[in-house]
């Protein structure tokens, strides 16, 4: 059986492990059932630990189940608000303390997670191999749960909280990392948890069934957390080869012509800015946006901005406009652009503005990931897209690539302007 990330399941107080579904929804008890005589998964409380089994004279806890109930958040029974950042693989989960529970360190759920934190942060690999995984579930409403992934505790913090009656109390906040399950197709094979329940299997034998990134953490320890953490941004990151035209293709020939046209000197490279705006207009129009060209900035005092345009959204009376700041870099097609140049462009953006960075090269993975994770309003246009835009425009206009580049270049001097970017909104 497998649990899929964000899978909604029916959870009933009474166990029905033989039924594949209940009320038309996948049955939690069916998906998490292990043969009789071994500990079963339950979500009776926010923190529920399975009974330990003894393997190789060592106690092993199969898993600890974490249930968060946002529909109860702010109530007297659940005064805290847990936080799930699925895209970045981070969970902030609050312990079981409520007003009147003193001291907080003796609350059962807190004791369980603090002990688990100590074990998972041990420098001893055997201790990590024995560590119980946290299985996270969110209850969107009564009688249902969603699986949110496998995790471990990174950090424990003592915090002050206030319940819905204004009463203050101390509690623990547990910052947890969700393990990347992309190698497993964003799902957890329950066979791993069932194996952890089997006293006849050693910790090492069980580890062979663990998710790939969990095994990596066991072998490498806490220093591997950044690489094993679930990160949706990584799925949106492209290799350099994917950002450049295929070798020997027509698009590669187009890109080579573009680079050769502008790369004869630094002054020539500067003139690539006019073409970059044409490409920007193509990219935005391709998704049915309306781009209006503004101007190319003069070399002195442009502060990293090479052209300015406008994006119009809506129609008629119901229209608004956004400033578009452009950066253009004519670079060797097999190179990656500078992260410093990207940072300069982002630094110039104001509220309600967007940026567009056009290069004949590619963007490194760290630069792409930073743009995605920090949600910068920045369009990244690599060499492959530049070549595609030029090729399609030349076919549309019945021009050769050389003729088209000369036509764009002939407008360069006329388009040089030194203005405040916001003036493009008045055009």
Distance between the termini: 61 Å
Low-confidence stretches: none
What does the average pLDDT come to? 87
CATH architecture name of the largest domain: Roll
Per CATH, the class of the largest domain reads Mainly Beta
Tally of contiguous helical segments: 15
Gyration radius, in Å: 28 Å
Number of domains: 2
Structural class: alpha+beta
Helicity level, as a percent range? 25-40%
- What multimeric state do the chains show? single chain
Strand content: 25-35%
CATH topology of the largest domain: PUA domain-like
Spatial shape:
elongated
The major beta sheet can be summarized as: 8 strands, mixed
Number of strands: 20
Task: Provide a descriptive summary of the structure in words.
It is a single chain. The protein is of the alpha+beta class and 427 residues long. It folds into 2 domains: 2-231, PUA domain-like; 240-426, Trna Endonuclease, Chain: A, domain 1, CATH 3.40.1350.10. 30% of the residues lie in helices and 26% in strands. The chain has 15 helices and 20 strands. Strands 2, 5, 8, 9, 10, 11, 12 and 13 form an 8-stranded mixed sheet that branches. Strands 19-18-17-16-15-20 form a 6-stranded mixed sheet. A two-stranded antiparallel ribbon has the order 1-14. Strand 6 (53-55) and strand 7 form a beta hairpin. Helix 11 crosses helix 14. The radius of gyration is 28 Å and the shape is elongated. The model has no long low-confidence stretch (mean pLDDT 87).
Could you write a compact summary of the structure shown?
The protein is an alpha+beta fold.
